[in-house]
Amino acid sequence: MSTILSRLLGLLLLLSLVACSDNQAITPTLPPTIKSVGNLPLPGGVSHLDFTVEDLKKVSSLSSSLNLTGVEVSAYSVTQTTTEILKFYQTELKNRGWSPDEKRSQSNLLYFSKNSLVSAIIALPINSPSAADTLSNVIPSFRGKFKAGDNLLILTQGPQTAFATG
Question: Measuring CA to CA, which residue among 55, 133, 130, 41 is closest to residue 91?
Answer without folding.
Answer: 41
